[in-house]
């Protein structure tokens, strides 16, 4: 095995290689109730602050030791300001106040600082002793805390390391985290970093070492240690790439750090050359807004730029407001409060009244209000967000009818501030037509695309589901219209915005999409789809309508079909004087939109479904939003920006779903990815376990005969780790080799448990190596053991592949009822025809198993009798000796399915509800009762019991003894009312009570 202690030694070796001093906690001379190393702080601060008296130094130390609160976040924010900006100490001399600035770190020369790594640091706080794995001290201050877990134990991972750090911070030793810059967690396979406020899904790997390097996917510990913990780089990150908002501490991810580092260099060069700094292409949802903040914060303090003015340009008012809010929240980091321009003249005033500094926000449209010069200053830097949408038209175009000469926004912007430097940000691929973004801004500086963002966990994958077949929209006709638009754009230079306007006003398209019957069908399908979804995280969904008219029609149809959804569904769009009064009331004004934005982002609010046309499709960030219903033609960057609304990371959210009613598949498929999963075979145990283990070991040796893993048995933990890691790489050289290795090591792991006492030490170590490699591969490919959701996902995939013929690609999780209902006569015929009967049988077993779980929640008698039968069928399948046996099991499962269906539906035939039928079955499970009482009496008792339980249940009654005692009395009254046999009453009361509790627990 490869233990946590051994991984700790590996990490310490990395630090030693990087030039850090390493000490075991027991070798430090310190008060274990203190987390600061006072001797080291004082020694180093004296060297860094020559000329300051020891009293001044000690007062600075006193200030970083003393806080006004016990709140970790507040204190961390205070200390971070001390750390990055110096500690201010006042001194009274001859009645005069003198201000001194005490530097805690030499940021420019890393060698002037004291870097110490301490493992097993004991800290006593609140009467308890805790021992973090590794603490990184800089000048005696604990700036990084590292928690490690075993690389070869599948049952533990970085989740456990994260939880342990959170417990240390929030409960046991909070003072250690007052000084924390960032945290690191690792189990050898995964290594991630994050801040004290970051949830686990916001911790991330560091996948590059140097700025010019390519991304490295399979060396997480290497890249983290050599990349982030390089002394110069770590200090750079701490000082220049960590910021605070009112609620959170945000640290740049690796792509933000390296991308913005390149952008800083490029922007400085641009100010001295042609003003073209370049283009940053970071996909939507990957933190582009904060990348812009990090860049701004570094530019405003860059010594060569001499406090420049930054102008941030967007192309929509809502985006301008959102980005402005992001910058405003980080005003400490950017060292000033940003300003929002109200008009072109306001921009002019803001520029004229300052020679340096300032961060000004404006929409691009303000530069077309009037043309001409705004400022000829050279120390202006313009950042253009989503530059591909508006930055074209530097060359003149002519109106054939009037001869009028026209330009695009880019020309007016550059005429207004001719000596500025320009840098572009975009979330979509750069186009190469005449509106070339790179031609205007320079070469691409950095790329972080959708695929990489998903691999890194910066965004979630996007699922796609076509519902065209269900609404009978003429896809051929729609496709032809789409192709014609495309031909015009490619062959005739028609711009995107022209196509969009055409689509809005094209009566033929409006007639097709806005047809009353079609709207009714689409809305009915959306409602059914929404209500059937069991995996909606917070119930947030967005409907993208074709036009204002169709949006309004959809809203009215939803209210017609679901009158009680008034609080749940709202329209968000700009006000329009041409709107009918009813729509105008629904839309409201600018303040209404702001209120609805706040409400929709609140996961607790009843506002769950928003209908939009154009608004909220770009730059609108609601992490909990996971479903988008699209009924509007879109393509290229407009489409990609829209669907990115559902790709944000949110706790419990495994992906975003795009439901297509209009025919987007051709445009989407390049970007959409789906999950893949692997099943692991189970191996039965037997008495010849040792022989089996040795045989498997021989197979693995043969597979690894070209790979030298001898160093695993040496003394170096670091080398041992590398051999595990490289062995995992070797085993996965081919898919066939990987499958063989995983199959054989799973068998080996199972039999090893039985025969471990019969094996030599050398054999055990060799087996431990292969099991460690197996664990490394598994933990690299998926986060852990599949849960019910993933299992259901696999079943759904099997069902679709095996029995569905239509072209609808449904990638959502199949619910129990959906899977069970798919087994109609037509699909069972398809299952019968599948030659791979093991697959067909597995499908049936999985579906039956999930359906029985569903039945158990509602009827314990039916569940019990059918569960016992089902277990026998499974046992028969597992004990099959011949390939023909599976056919017999398959037929038994089909019979089982029919009888289970009959049992479920029996209540309807008897005139009973599901709840009433459950009580009928409870009473009828006693054969004596069946002979003593007629079915008609039992039916009446069952109905009476269901009504009685319903009338007398209170909140959480099934969890309170006193409430249960009262319920027993009510049940007894019903039984006695119908002359239920007294000698049978005690058991009947308890059985009925159990069934009632079961129903209560699953309401």
Structure in a nutshell:
Helices cover about 50% and strands about 10% of the residues.
Tell me about this structure.
- The protein is of the alpha/beta class and 1003 residues long.
- It contains 40 helices and 27 strands.
- The strands form seven sheets. The chain has a seven-stranded parallel β-sheet with strand order 15-16-14-17-20-13-21, sandwiched between helices.
- Helix 2 packs across helix 3 (54-65).
- The radius of gyration is 34 Å and the shape is globular.
Key descriptive features of the protein:
single chain; about 1000 residues; alpha/beta
Strand content: 5-15%
Strand order of the largest sheet: 15-16-14-17-20-13-21
Q: Radius of gyration, Cα only, in angstroms?
A: 34 Å
Cα end-to-end separation: 46 Å
The total of helices stands at: 40
* Main sheet properties: 7 strands, parallel
C-alpha geometry = globular
Low-confidence stretches: 392-405, 431-435, 469-475, 670-687, 783-818
Counting DSSP E segments of at least 2 residues, the number of strands comes to: 27
Structural class: alpha/beta
Helical fraction equals 40-55%
Mean pLDDT across all residues, rounded?
80
